[in-house]
Predict the structure.
Amino acid sequence: MKAKYIFLTFVSAMMLTACMDGEWEAPDMTNPAYGNNAITVDASKQVTIGELKTTYASVIAGSGFERITDEKQLQCTVIGNDIGGNIYKQIIVQDATGALVVGINGTGLFPFLSVGQQILIDLKDLCIGGYGEQPQLGDEYNGSIGRMSTEKWQQHVKILPTHDISQIDTIDFFSVAKNDIDRYCGHLVCLKDVQIGDADGTTTLAPEYKSGTTLTYNGSTNGYVHHTLNGESMNSLLLRTSTYADFAALVIPQKPVTLYGIATRYRSTWQILIRAEEDIVISEN
């Protein structure tokens, strides 16, 4: 199911390009009509996500931000986008050393930023910081790390001609040692044989919040609903789903499931963001 979702995501990107004479044309990814094709790969400028997190560790931990002034580049692969509606005005990127949220003040990002797409980001003049200790790349907003404008993003990103889902590394979240867990913040993870809380045969992942009501399953007024996983404490591990997600009305499976999603955090709370309904796989037994 997970492979099917990734394949369909890529197909969607192909179909949403321009057509002529009534026939769909595959995009020319050597010179895509997205981003800044003038950016060139320069190995002397390249840094990894791991290096960025180390360099700006104190800024991220303090939920601050800092503007990058050096000529630096980041070559990475998209592992999450807004195609399913659960990730909003963000993409998540990953390389061999870690993962990072990229805040972009725009929607409909997925056609050219599909899962598996490799991109090159010109980091100079962008900001890096922590949103609740979640590492994020973006721009300054009211004294904190926020999203960059779509115009700025277009000037700082280059779509590379490689689309390869095999480079995406999925980590078994439950196998990560607690003293090493911060390293995988923003990473694509799987959680095997978990029970989603509030599974009573009728409760959905993210029912619409109604003003003046109290949601017993830790719903919130900001458009997200939280569910426990394996009965973990609410301030430890949650499944976070937007009420605007395409799969918000999915009835929570009563059987154990394997979840695939992005492991994000807000301070000490770990929040798993699934990207599409296919990221929930009901266990066979």
Remarks:
- The two ends are 17 Å apart (CA to CA).
- The chain has two domains: 2-11+39-167, 171-282.
- The first strand starts at residue 19 and ends at 20.
